[in-house]
Design a protein that fits this description.
Layout (H helix, E strand, L loop, with lengths): L1 E8 L3 E10 L4 E6 L8 H9 L5 E11 L8
Parallel strand pairs: 3-4
Antiparallel strand pairs: 1-2, 2-4
Length: 73
C-alpha cells in the first residue's frame, strides 16, 4: 500500500489532500470531500485515471479557512 499527502494554502483557505492506494486488478477510485467542493468527484476520478492505470485508490480532501480548524475528516 502507498499513501501520499499534499497541502496547498492561499490567503483564504488551506486544502489538504491524502491519496491512499493498494494493489488491485482494475482502477477503483473513491473520493471523499465536502459537498461544496470546487471539483466534482467525477472530475477528480478522470484526472486520476490519466496517471493511474490500476489499483484501489482513496482520495480524501479537507478544506479549512487558513489557520482555522479542519472541516472534514
Amino acid at each position: 500500500s502507498m499513501t501520499g499527502f499534499g497541502l496547498a494554502s492561499s490567503e483564504k483557505r488551506d486544502i489538504e489532500v491524502e491519496v491512499r492506494s493498494v494493489n488491485h486488478r482494475f482502477l477503483e477510485c473513491t473520493v471523499k470531500q465536502l459537498p461544496f467542493a470546487a471539483c466534482s468527484d467525477q472530475e477528480i476520478k478522470s484526472l486520476l485515471g490519466r496517471f493511474v492505470e490500476r489499483g484501489k485508490v482513496e482520495v480524501l480532501i479537507n478544506y479549512r479557512p487558513s489557520g482555522g480548524p479542519e472541516t472534514l475528516k
